[in-house]
């Protein structure tokens, strides 16, 4: 069964249960995000291998910190693109509720 892709939350009326929510980022942005995620996936596999091979704890912790920093970088890039496209469009269309959603998202990112 084919999985439905969700739109960017700010792009569509959240009250419309029927609407699908999709981001509308450029192919370049999508490629950049996917490339970063692929590298992070490799880092995670490497960390798992380090643990399986009983690597020194400090070395593993440094690699975990590196992977977390890389994920934070993806989050920041996606947040920037979201604000410059999805959020901006919704504000221009008069949907100020998108700002409340954005604030909640930023708070979650800061945890």
Automatic annotation (TrEMBL):
InterPro entries: Metal_Tscrpt_repr, Metal_Tscrpt_repr_sf. Residues 13-25 have a biased composition (Basic and acidic residues). It comes from Desulfitobacterium dehalogenans (strain ATCC 51507 / DSM 9161 / JW/IU-DC1). This is Metal-sensing transcriptional repressor. One of its GO terms (molecular function) is DNA binding. Pfam families: Trns_repr_metal. Gene3D superfamilies: Metal-sensitive repressor, helix protomer (1.20.58.1000). GO terms for biological process: negative regulation of DNA-templated transcription. Residues 1-25 are annotated as: Disordered.
